[in-house]
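Hypothesis: this fold can be encoded by more than one sequence.
Test: take the structure tokens below, design a sequence, compare later.
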């Protein structure tokens, strides 16, 4: 149901590759809520993905840009301003990629050329984008810029490789450029730290479906999916969050606030009033614990959809 909370607002959405993409859901939601948008992705993503369908559905121009190229970002900003007839109000940066993870290189044996690429695509691109928007004074006062991050950017985690360092840098750029954008332009800059989500990028991490299951069990209200993230992004684009800036905002069902918790399952629900505080964390630590044994139907569905959508997606990253 639409509440028209983005009525009259205009913005650019990066990173819609296919229907699973968080950016895809965000684009659809923004238009539903009354916004006009411009879509962008790399030439390769336009060729290999289905973003053209989204552009049609949203009645939005599609302007190719590699987010690591300042020239492309300048061209994109100019064309978007031309299309909108002036400044715009929001931007979503939903861009990430690690060649090391894609090629299965562990954190203890990274290729440093790849590492630079990871940082350039997944973090520096956000600085390049903000600097371009700043120099061109392209965003209206009260505007909102959002990038997507993951908890491995602020907590140690095995398996996320050099993307963890890229996300830490992305969050740092958000604070430092956010300070300037806020003081000088009254524009907000935030990151949303999203639950593991079944997308092309997400499905590339080794053990992704097991992680989805685990975090869904641990999070008090379960994982946030791509639609949940789109709702949060829409809220951050809207005037309802006009004083929220320079923040890393968790959209993860409470996962990030937990130190130790019980695994949720049917038995816990049954014993809840009788045995408050009974903690099954030992089970998590127990050798041989397998999330499969605790799989819930909702999560099984999300993991299965991910596998069905990307049967040969190889190792990518979220
Ligand atoms: P996705 O694979 O649908 O989106 C990633 C996008 O990045 C693709 O559209 C791709 O074409 C684009 N991209 C890659 N290199 C680019 C470049 N040089 N220039 C411009 N665009 C480029 O996957 P998803 O999950 O929707 O990813 C969006 C964002 O959400 C990423 O920043 C990701 O790290 C973040 N995120 C994803 C999570 C997940 O579990 N899927 C969890 C937390 C954050």
């Amino acid at each position: 149901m639409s509440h028209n909370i983005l009525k009259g607002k205009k913005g650019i959405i990066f990173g819609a590759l296919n229907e699973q993409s968080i950016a895809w859901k965000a684009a659809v939601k923004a238009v539903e809520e009354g916004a006009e948008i411009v879509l962008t992705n790399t030439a390769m993503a336009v060729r290999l993905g289905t973003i053209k369908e989204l552009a049609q559905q949203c009645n939005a121009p599609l302007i190719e840009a590699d987010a690591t190229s300042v020239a492309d970002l300048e061209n994109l900003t100019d064309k978007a301003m031309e299309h909108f007839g002036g400044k715009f109000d929001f931007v979503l940066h939903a861009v990430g990629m690690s060649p090391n993870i894609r090629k299965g290189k562990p954190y203890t044996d990274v290729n440093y050329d790849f590492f630079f690429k990871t940082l350039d695509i997944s973090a520096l691109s956000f600085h390049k984008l903000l600097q371009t928007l700043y120099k061109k004074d392209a965003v209206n006062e009260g505007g909102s810029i959002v990038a997507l991050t993951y908890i491995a950017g602020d907590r140690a985690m095995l398996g996320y490789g050099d993307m963890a360092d890229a996300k830490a840098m992305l969050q740092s750029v958000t604070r430092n450029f956010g300070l300037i954008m806020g003081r000088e332009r009254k524009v907000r800059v935030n990151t949303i730290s999203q639950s593991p989500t079944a997308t092309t990028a997400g499905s590339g991490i080794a053990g992704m479906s097991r992680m989805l299951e685990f975090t869904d069990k641990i999070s008090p209200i379960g994982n946030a999916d791509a639609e949940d993230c789109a709702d949060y992004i829409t809220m951050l684009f809207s005037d309802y969050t006009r004083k929220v800036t320079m923040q890393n905002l968790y959209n993860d069902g409470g996962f990030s606030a937990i130190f130790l918790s019980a695994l949720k399952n049917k038995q816990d629900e049954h014993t809840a009033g009788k045995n408050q505080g009974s903690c099954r964390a030992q089970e998590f630590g127990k050798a041989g614990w397998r999330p499969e044994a605790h799989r819930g139907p909702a999560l099984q569905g999300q993991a299965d959809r991910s596998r069905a959508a990307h049967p040969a997606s190889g190792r990518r990253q979220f």
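The domain at 10-257 is CATH 3.40.50.720 (Rossmann fold). The longest helix spans residues 112-135.
Hypothesis status: open.
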